[in-house]
Write a structure and sequence with these properties.
single chain, 547 residues, alpha+beta, six-stranded antiparallel sheet, two-stranded parallel sheet, 12 helices, elongated
């Protein structure tokens, strides 16, 4: 008894010390500056002052390079397959998306944790000393009470709760009528509480888990769609870079032809065959072609920088001047496409349609849950209790073990809402949302069919453009050579040759664009069907961030 009192006294002193510490810390917090409450404070001038851009006039002909600590190669040969692999490994947009499945899986774990058992313990001590009428002194004027309780609560997936409790009470009093002083009371009880209508049943109580699981699958579908989109974007960027490089080659070729025409015009003027105006015309043409080269080089840098951004490879940052040499060349092949089969594959593989199907399944269980919430609240409670009493703690536990004194309690609680408009409204809302989504599913299927058929027609049109543009390039080349021959024979002007050069350059540009747009049309068709190009399948895994 003395050890118990000393322990209680020590616990009381600890509580007092902790309380004083909390009060002291709270007082210190009150005198802190306002800014100390925030982990990061932005200076006011950074938010309210707009800086000016400072530009220094260069003293060199070349623009200074962006300095980096990484060793960058002058050139890097890379294939389309390598670009896809680097994208899966390093792309920042994709890495952000790959964390979402991990977050969704944690939400499922959180919902499942609601059925974990909980252990509880409590200790209470009280001491009272109050005057009483001696003629009515049954409990005594002085009483010392120590109560200890240990319990386990187990939530059930049926909606009920099972609880086990062990209570140990020690009572000491100065009452003359007390048979045991001190006395020890021990109770062991088991109880169950089970709803019968509202919140009753496995499906209702696992609603949160199933919703979280559907959300996890929806997140996986969204992540897969993001992976397809990112890889398709890399394919398009790869072919855009190929197109701009080829267009730059065309501009350089046109510049060389213009320079050659200018030199011919100078020679003809020197011998008196052509007037001086021909030199001026051809010289202006050279300047125009030089400007076209400058624009084409800038387009190459932009598309190359965009591809580097997507690859995000170490040592190949956007600021590097490494030239990407594309080893995969266009290989246009005409495909025989079964329209019905392509549409069926798209409906089977498209992740946005799968996401809609998962949402419909989620709507179905939501309707069931909302319908259950409109029922009355009926709860049945049952408690089985074993009692023990004795002058010593051991005697009390012996009596508890003998199970001679036991109690049974059963109860029924009913709560019926009057009106129940809120629950019925939520049920109707869930039904309406599912009806709306069902209509949206039909619209989504029609949209997918439209996109697939559109991409098939686009692919066929791009193939026809390749054939037509090749023929146009051949004819424009012949016309240019003929105009040039006429100029050399003195039967034509440099203007005719320049116009023929421009038409040839346009024909070459159209042929290059038709070729690359055909490759991108194949990418778009694969994206419309929910698939990717390439010989190997792509398998992604969620990223688990490190603590």
């Amino acid at each position: 008894m003395s050890r118990m009192l000393s322990a209680v006294s020590a616990l009381g002193r600890l509580c007092v010390i902790m309380g004083l510490g909390v009060i002291l810390l709270s007082g210190c917090a009150l005198i802190r500056e306002k800014e100390d409450f925030y982990t990061y404070t932005t200076p006011p001038e950074k938010l309210r002052e707009i800086e000016t851009l400072k530009l220094n006039e260069t003293k060199e002909e070349e623009v200074p390079r962006f300095k980096t600590d990484e060793q960058e190669p002058a050139e890097l040969t890379i294939s389309l397959e390598e670009c896809r692999a680097l994208t899966l490994e390093n792309n920042l947009d994709l890495q952000v998306e790959l964390i979402n499945p991990t977050i969704a899986a944690e939400r499922v774990s959180q919902e499942e944790a609601q059925f974990e058992a909980a252990f509880s313990a409590s200790v209470n001590y009280s001491k009272s000393n109050s005057p009483v009428d001696p003629t009515r002194d049954v409990q005594g004027s002085s009483m010392e009470y120590i109560s200890t309780n240990l319990g386990v609560s187990i939530p059930l997936r049926t909606g009920g709760t099972i609880e086990f409790d062990l209570t140990d009470n020690e009572i000491e009093t100065n009452s003359f009528f007390s048979t045991f002083n001190p006395s020890y009371e021990t109770d062991l009880s088991a109880s169950i509480s089970q709803p019968l209508l509202r919140n009753a049943g496995h499906r209702v109580n696992t609603y949160g888990i199933r919703v979280a699981e559907y959300n996890r699958q929806i997140t996986d579908a969204q992540t897969k769609l993001a992976a397809i989109r990112v890889i398709a974007d890399v394919d398009r960027a790869y072919w855009r870079l190929y197109a701009t490089r080829r267009l730059l080659d065309v501009r350089k070729q046109q510049y060389e032809l213009a320079q050659e025409l200018f030199e011919q015009a100078e020679r003809f003027v020197e011998v008196g065959v052509k007037p001086q105006i021909e030199v001026i015309r051809t010289h202006a043409n050279v300047a125009e072609k030089l400007e076209d080269i400058i624009k084409a080089e800038n387009d190459v840098r932009d598309t190359e920088r965009d591809l580097k951004r997507m690859l995000n490879k170490a040592g190949l940052g956007m600021e590097t001047e490494t030239v990407l040499i594309l080893s995969t060349k266009p290989d246009p092949v005409r495909y025989e496409l079964n329209r019905e089969e392509m549409v069926a594959n798209a409906i089977e593989n498209r992740m946005d349609l799968l996401e809609l199907e998962l949402q419909l399944a989620q709507d179905a269980i939501t309707i069931d849950y909302r319908r259950n919430q409109t029922l009355p609240q009926v709860t049945m409670d049952y408690t089985y209790n074993i009692n023990g009493l004795g002058p010593k703690r051991g005697d009390s536990y012996d009596l508890l073990k003998d199970n001679d004194y036991r109690d049974h309690r059963i109860g029924l609680q009913v709560s019926i809402p009057l009106g129940n408009k809120a629950a019925e409204s939520r049920l109707r809302q869930a039904v309406y949302e599912r009806t709306k989504r069902l209509a949206g599913r039909d619209n989504k299927k029609a949209q997918i069919k439209y996109e697939v058929l559109q991409q098939i027609d686009k692919l066929e049109a791009c193939w026809q453009r390749i054939l037509a543009s090749r023929q146009a390039t051949i004819l424009q080349d012949q016309q240019y050579k003929a105009e040039k021959r006429q100029f050399e024979l003195g039967l034509g002007t440099s203007t005719d040759v320049r116009d023929a050069q421009t038409k040839l350059a346009d024909a070459q540009r159209v042929e290059i664009l038709a070729l690359t747009e055909y490759q991108m049309a194949v990418v778009d068709l694969a994206y419309a069907t929910g698939t990717l190009l390439g010989a190997a399948k792509v398998q992604w895994e969620p990223i688990i961030p490190q603590d």
